[in-house]
Specification:
This protein has 737 residues and is mainly beta. The protein contains 8 helices and 58 strands. Strands 4, 5, 6, 9, 10, 11, 12, 22, 23, 24 and 25 form an 11-stranded antiparallel β-sheet that branches. An 8-stranded antiparallel β-sheet has the order 32-31-30-29-51-50-49-48, with no helix packed on it. The chain has a 6-stranded mixed β-sheet with strand order 54-1-55-57-56-58, with helices on both faces.
Length: 737
């Protein structure tokens, strides 16, 4: 198994750790849910260049479900541009409507054709793509046991593509005397023109070609061929193929063997002079291909379903040949699948994977008589938010709860009292900048007539009348203050709002307003960014929250779903993806008496990797780790990292610990910094540091075996690890030996 891989270009996106349910703002930690800090789509594993940590690498990769990068070998075109990828709801034609030599330099090369008079004709090749091949969300009992899949569901009759060969200027005479016996290249394959008439053109696929002399046996395409005899004065030749004699074959004609192989006679060089030997140029191919002027292609006299040809001529000159590929029966194209052009098998559509950036995972939770957002990543960390609660078990009676109210307003002003909390959110119009803070009024000083605000992350601001408070780029002004009565009015600064929250990756959630209380139903809106990253400009998801039979529940979820609707994952779970470039995923849990949902917001483009390729193109999945020397500044800035091995073998581990590289296990610096001696190991979380801007995990033992046991401990007994670091001693590691 190959464990190391070269890293493909990194998709930039923010990374957030999922908080433990019920926690407030907090940093990434170890513990039972430590792997939630390292989502597979945005995590890389780093080992030393001269490492011996394959076992630890494999163990961590398996646990985090990190797979290798798929590489494509051979000529192909990826339906993707630098600023335009294939998103949900888009078809191939939207990425590129026409492919030419620029995209497929061999398959669609500009070629030259020579007729029987050796006259030269230039022609170009192109492919027109389909507007019916749409990336969507589907399920079918005939595909992966009805599992919901992101990919392509292609019904019978779906147009796939048109291939066109077109001569520049006047083409060759559309006549058997000038075309028959010549060769022409279509889609990178050479074909022999054996017959031309008013009905169309007959081709022989040239798999292998060779010259056979009298009294000699030549292996051509796996067939042993020799000349048996000539007839009709050298106009026909009988051959012996693998010991079986054919009937006489005329020049330009074919003979089909019982196994389907087609033997073609291209040229007969018949010479009866003394001392000279006659020769035959033969081809061995897979079949005889008939291209009608208009209609279904035939191979070996059998119709090829899903492939039609159209031959155009002008003033008796061949001008173009077009092949139209359609789906002849319902087909599916998901990650790892391919669909091959019927008959000619010169092209295939293939899908390697869906690409997901970093994930923000937020729960819309119905808890008894409350509606909450759990694990919301805002500027200062992750937070749980009680949006609404009910005291009468019939209607929503409070924003927040009665004891911990949440103040909101859809105007620029907000009236507050001591211990009141609110969200202040900056959203710059038509830009990708936004941030939210949860702020509480903590104190009033009536002697100084001041008020103190504190954010959930610990920042404080003490001001008096007409003074400003700043939390990051969020600004608001104290517009009215009565410290004795413990009341304060604030006015939002430019582009600041009190009725929405924006996550770090740009998802906007609406907050309830006081005039929306008193009803048993309220709709929570989540708004994506658009394709340009502009906050609050994308698609909307509505979560209809209601009080039903005295309990809160998410009654309905409404969005523009890829595939037209949410799909049933199992009896208690529906799943849907918003049909948009960001493709927010929603899992709807309906198994109990209080339904809720999990939102996965990716903050950047979600897209499929789909290729048009020659049928010889192959794919392979590389290893799951990279060497420390391959780690770039961009990777450090945009990826969560698991660093395996100590500062003696892994340069990045040394950087995390602030040690010179290499600092070996026996070094006093290593022991004093880590406490790791023989038979021991360290697991430690790093977050938002100069070396680690995102979240990093160090897994390092005194020896490689200790490192592996530490990895095994992480994957089998994560609940025994708490806080941000743990020194594992011999007794700990022995439990997983």
């Amino acid at each position: 198994m190959k464990l190391l891989k070269k890293i493909a270009p990194i998709a930039i996106g923010a990374v957030f750790a999922l908080s433990t349910v019920g926690s407030a703002l907090g940093a990434a930690t170890l513990g039972a849910n430590w792997k939630n800090n390292f989502p597979a789509a945005n995590t890389i594993i780093v080992v030393g260049d001269e490492h011996d940590d394959a076992l630890a690498l494999t163990e961590i990769a398996r646990y985090l479900q990190i797979s290798g990068v798929t590489t494509v070998t051979g000529e192909s075109y990826l339906f993707e541009k630098r600023k335009d990828k294939l998103n949900l709801g888009e078809d191939l034609n939207q990425i590129r409507s026409t492919l030419t030599e620029e995209q497929l330099p061999t398959i669609l090369a500009e070629e030259k054709y020579y007729d029987t008079n050796n006259e030269e004709f230039e022609y170009k090749q192109k492919i027109t793509t389909s507007d019916e091949i749409k990336l969507t969300h589907f399920q079918d009992y005939d595909y992966k046991n009805n599992k919901p899949t992101l990919g392509f569901e292609l019904e019978s009759g779906t147009f796939v593509l048109d291939y066109t060969l077109e001569f520049s200027g006047t083409g060759p005479s559309f006549d058997g005397s000038t075309l028959e016996g010549t060769s022409i290249v279509l889609m990178g394959k050479e074909y022999y023109i054996s017959k031309v008439d008013d009905t169309g053109i007959t081709l022989l696929e040239t798999t292998t070609k060779a010259t056979v002399e009298e009294d000699a046996t030549v292996n051509v395409g796996g067939k042993n061929i020799k000349i048996a005899y000539f007839s009709e004065g050298g106009k026909k030749v009988a051959l012996v193929v693998d010991g079986v004699e054919t009937t006489p074959i005329a020049e330009g004609k074919t003979y089909r063997l019982k196994d389907g192989t087609v033997i073609g006679v291209r040229t007969i060089i018949y010479d009866t002079r003394q001392g000279y030997k006659s020769k035959v140029v033969v081809t061995v191919g897979t079949g005889k291909i008939f291209l009608p002027k208009e209609g279904e292609v035939k191979i070996n006299d059998k119709t090829v379903d899903g492939l039609n040809s159209y031959i155009s001529s002008t003033d008796d000159n061949l001008q173009s040949i077009t092949l139209e590929w359609t789906i002849d029966e319902t087909s599916f194209l998901g990650p790892g699948d391919e669909i091959v052009m019927p008959g000619l098998k010169a092209l295939k559509l293939m899908m390697t994977e869906m690409v997901f950036p970093a994930e923000e995972r937020i729960e819309v939770d119905a808890d008894r008589t409350k509606l909450l957002l759990r694990g919301v990543p805002i500027k200062e960390g992750k937070i749980d938010i009680t949006l609404l609660s009910s005291n009468d078990e019939e209607t929503w009676t409070h924003i927040g709860t009665e004891s911990e109210p949440l103040k909101t307003s859809n105007t620029p002003t907000l009236k507050l009292q001591r211990k009141d909390s609110f969200f202040a959110t900056l959203i710059k119009p038509l830009e990708d900048e936004g941030e939210s803070y949860k702020i509480t009024v903590t104190d009033f000083d009536k002697d100084k007539n001041t008020v103190t605000f504190a954010s959930a992350g610990g920042k404080k601001c003490t001001v008096t009348q007409n003074e400003e408070c700043e939390f990051g780029e969020v600004v608001f002004t104290v517009s009215g203050l009565n410290a004795t009565a413990k009341e304060v009015n604030i006015t939002a600064g430019e582009d600041v709002y009190f009725d929405v929250i924006v996550t770090n990756a740009g998802a906007v959630f609406t907050l309830p307003l006081s005039d929306e209380l008193g009803s048993g139903t309220w709709s929570l809106s989540m708004i994506e960014e658009d394709e340009e990253g502009r906050i609050k400009e994308g698609k909307i998801i509505e979560f209809e929250a209601a009080i039903v039979d005295g309990k809160s529940t998410v009654k309905k979820i409404i969005a523009t779903w890829a595939g037209g609707k949410m799909l049933e994952e199992d009896d208690d779970t529906d799943v849907g993806y918003v049909e948009s470039p960001l493709a927010t995923k929603v899992v709807y849990k309906t198994g109990g008496d209080q339904d809720d949902a999990i939102v996965s917001y990716f903050g950047d483009e979600v897209y499929g990797k789909v290729y048009l390729a020659g049928t010889g193109v192959t794919t392979a999945t590389g290893g799951v780790g990279i060497m420390a020397s391959e780690l770039t500044a961009e990777m450090k800035a945009t990826k969560n990292i698991v660093s395996i091995g100590g500062s003696g073998v892994n340069k990045f581990s040394a950087e995390l610990l602030g040690l010179p590289f290499p600092t070996y296990g026996s070094s006093e610096e290593w022991i004093s910094e880590t406490g790791v001696e023989a038979g021991m190991a360290l697991v430690k979380i790093f977050e938002r540091t100069t070396v680690c801007p995102k979240v990093c995990l160090l897994v390092a033992g005194f020896h490689s075996q200790d490192t592996y046991r530490a990895a095994k401990f992480l994957t089998t007994k994560p609940e025994k690890l708490t806080g941000t670091e743990k020194l594992l001693r011999q007794a700990d590691l022995a439990t997983v030996a």
